[in-house]
Amino acid sequence: MRSLRALGLYAVLTVALTWPYAANLRVMEVGDPAFFAWEIGWTVHALETDPAQLPHGNIFHPLRYTLGLDEPVFGTTLLALPLALFTDNAVLLFNVVRLLTFLFSALTAYWLARELGAGEGAALLGGAFFAFSPIRIDQVAHLSTLGTQWLPLVVLFAVRFSRRGKTRDALLAGLFFVLAFAACGYHGLFALVVLPPVFLVLLWGRWRSFPKAVLAAILAGLALLPLYLMHSRALAPEEYARGAEETIHYSAPLEAFLATSSWNRVYGEITDPFRPAGSYNLFPGLIVPGLVLAGAIVLWRRRQRPSREAWALLVMAVVGALVAMGPLIRVFGYEIVPGPWALLRDTVPVFEKIRVTSRAGIFVALPLAMLAAKSLTLLRPRAVVLATLGVVGLAETLIAPIPMPAWTKVIDTRDEPPPVYRWLAEQPGGDVIVHLPMFDGRALTQRPRFHESVYMVYSTFHWNPMVNGYAGIEPRGYVRIRERMMSFPSEEFLDLLRDVDVRYIVVHRKGYGPNQWPRLQRGMPRALGRSLREVVSLEGDTVYELLPRPAAEPDPPGDESTTDHLN
């Protein structure tokens, strides 16, 4: 009954503090949200049709293991599976799941707070403080880093295991670690650094429990092996690794702990001088740290020692902050000392693949929220004071109403999709497609309707393999084709498409600028009949069939152009 009451409270808070997302469940923003919508759609589609194809998304053809080029978020897609029984609308599934990550992160943190001895009201606030922490709510566009719903359960069952030594609790901690890792690989890799010292504090002096803990860790590692192999097979051909300078750029300088999102209604403008470029904002607010400090003062005055669990939470916060600061601890551009991450990065190859170490801030948000709940239990404020602290603390996180400019609402599944996607869905299927134009990241703001992520979401209507794609890693073969895209319909570019077995070229007229379109039109008469056959033209979108390679013939001078892609 208490959990149901907590669920109801957190549902109301989720809708209110993320408004207007709940009113736009069929609307999709371009970029990362669109990518994660496609990813959820692909996972559901593969599970329903051919689970063996799950790692091989329909993007970046002819590559395989394309789901391993970014976060596959399997651990969060689990939340979509019940709803997927009733709809295959990838946009709707994504938007519902995004809200569910807030709801269930709050609920599981509430359970953890109760396990740690917090009173009912204090635990309710602890769950809310975690789910809606400024650190976490800064990530509203990234489903991977929003997928924190399993992390509190890892700690909960680790605490139970440390107290009772039962194998069941160790195995459950391992299970939820696997789910947390599958929800966000960043969090999983950070946890490999943050959690061992936490568990050491919990198990110190209880050495008989260590064999069971080691067994649970081994089983968790085996369960994660398929995920590791998928990423390895995706990344190895690209010889992928992050440079040290890139990692430093996306790590958190000390001032990041004083900065919130610019959308924050309370601190956004105030903390603007502390907001670093590249990294994420890690300011936890004032209420939560203030409560932690107040609880520490009360213990000191009573001459009481913090509990073992409190020390473990403190260790988690400190180690999480050190990891977030990355290879080099900096403040306002000044380098202070190398960070512990530098040693890890140089000695453990898997950590070379981490770019944004500031995402470890979640391991600061969780322990602070739990320590605040324990402090509230210790302080025993009156109900009206408790409620006031909750309101003020959550007000510090406020970003609602979240800005959703019209240009970001690229896809609205309440409307019919463009006719060309309906036409593709009616074809027998299996033919390789390329959408033109193909743009780099500049299209997010300059040509959002023709960003690669938009093509991906619309591919959920037909699921044909595409040369197009958008992910954290851009394969070299894809980049080579994209860089030559503006020479279309040159024979050189068409040969690149033949090499990857393209059959249909979908040309979106409105995606071309006023200079590039006439150049394309000048080259089209020579290509038609020789290399291309027009199949259908629908409201400005034309589909061409790519014909077999013709006999070699030199192109006339001036036929190609590699000028500005957005011109």
Round the Cα radius of gyration to an integer and report it: 26 Å
Quaternary assembly: single chain
Largest sheet: 4 strands, mixed
User: Average pLDDT value?
Assistant: 93
Report on the structure:
This protein is an alpha+beta fold. The protein has two domains: 2-395, no CATH class; 416-546, 3-Layer(aba) Sandwich (Rossmann fold), CATH 3.40.50. 51% of the residues lie in helices and 7% in strands. It is built from 24 helices and eight strands. The protein has helices at 2-17, 32-49, 74-77, 81-84, 90-115, 120-131, 134-137, 143-146, 151-164, 167-183, 185-203, 210-235, 244-249, 287-301, 308-324, 340-347, 362-379, 383-395, 419-426, 443-446, 452-458, 476-484, 491-499, 516-527; strands at residues 27-29, 328-331, 334-338, 409-412, 432-436, 502-508, 532-538, 541-546. The strands form three sheets. The chain has a four-stranded mixed beta sheet, with helices on one face. The protein has a two-stranded antiparallel ribbon with strand order 1-4. Helix 5 runs antiparallel to helix 6 (120-131), helix 9 (151-164) packs antiparallel against helix 10 (167-183) and helix 10 packs antiparallel against helix 11. The longest helix has 26 residues, at 90-115. It is elongated. Residues 560-564 have low confidence and may be disordered.
Brief overview:
It is built from 24 helices and eight strands. The protein is of the alpha+beta class.
